[in-house]
Amino acid sequence: MSDFNWCHGPECxxxxxxxxxxxxxxxxxxxxxxxxxxxxxxxxxxSYFCSQHCYNDFTIKYIDRVIAIAxxxxxxxxxxxxxxxxxxxxxxxxxRHSYTTTKIExxxxxxxx
Length: 113
Ligand SMILES: [Zn+2]
Known about the structure:
It is built from 1 helix and 6 strands, in the order ββββαββ. By secondary structure, it is of the alpha+beta class. Strands 1-4 form a two-stranded antiparallel sheet. Bound molecules: zinc ion.
């Protein structure tokens, strides 16, 4: 297995940056960037794409095919307990301040997966 991937961005080799310039004088090219695989990017999208821009280019071009891998034809639901509103009040030297949060918890007894 190689320790790098070529960037999968379909336009990567067309971007005008000096790090992409390769070849000998008189026959220079812009080349797709090479991405070294390491402990930080292995298994993540950024081991396949040199930039967010290249990732977006790929997604825009191939989104229909990507979605076809696992199409979502119905919504999914996560069972939860009835949400609880909580009011938090703090007294400061300049006065009382309160805010409300809503606690949302998964109902493990109805959890399917
Ligand atoms: Zn790229």
